[in-house]
Amino acid sequence: MLVTIGTVLKPRGLKGELKVEILYNRPAVFNNLKTVYLHDRPYQVEKSSVQNGFAYLYLTMVTTVEQAEKLRRQEVKVAVDDLQLADNEVLSTDLVGFTVIHLGKKIGKVQAVENYGGGDFFEIALTGAGYAQIPNEDDFIAETNLTDHTLTLTPNALAAEMV
Fold first, then answer.
1. Which candidate, 67, 79, 69, 1, places its Cα nearest to that of 33?
2. Domain locations in the chain?
3. Is the four-CA dihedral 146, 150, 153, 158 of positive or negative sign?
């Protein structure tokens, strides 16, 4: 399974280096990449770095600014196994289907995970009708229980989120 960790913004320099917007919550993952996928095609990473909130990649088969320009706006993906997750760490997408609890009551299920460039949002299908989008941040998520498949929200999480 492939996971999106960034988006190519533009070439940098004349030798095919790519400037990448980081969409993954641990930017350091870019420092150890061996292979990335663009257009679901594998590219070997020659060199990578993180500077000023952006990742920079040199890919083996991208050696000119013209080649790099063709990759503009492409999602940068990696294999889940390459993320080196800790034993108790999961991806936000692994929580799809979890029951959502707010103020001690089951209020719905995680239907999807969206990322608009500022971090992951859980889309919650509310019991009955409607939905809510909740950022995957400590101010909104009180607990994630992997055994019970539940996501417990903080008391203020739904203050202005319901649609």
1. 79
2. 2-83, 92-153
3. positive
Q: Can 2-83 and 92-153 be said to share one CATH topology?
A: no
Please tell me the class of the 2-83 domain.
mainly beta
Each of the 163 residues of the chain gets a pLDDT tens digit; together they read: 788 888 999 999 999 999 999 887 778 888 889 999 998 899 999 999 999 989 999 999 999 999 999 999 999 999 888 877 766 677 787 788 999 999 999 999 999 888 776 678 899 999 988 889 998 888 899 999 888 999 999 998 887 554 4
CA–CA dist 140, 156 (Å, integer): 7
The whole model's pTM is what? 0.65
Architecture of domain 92-153: Roll (2.30)
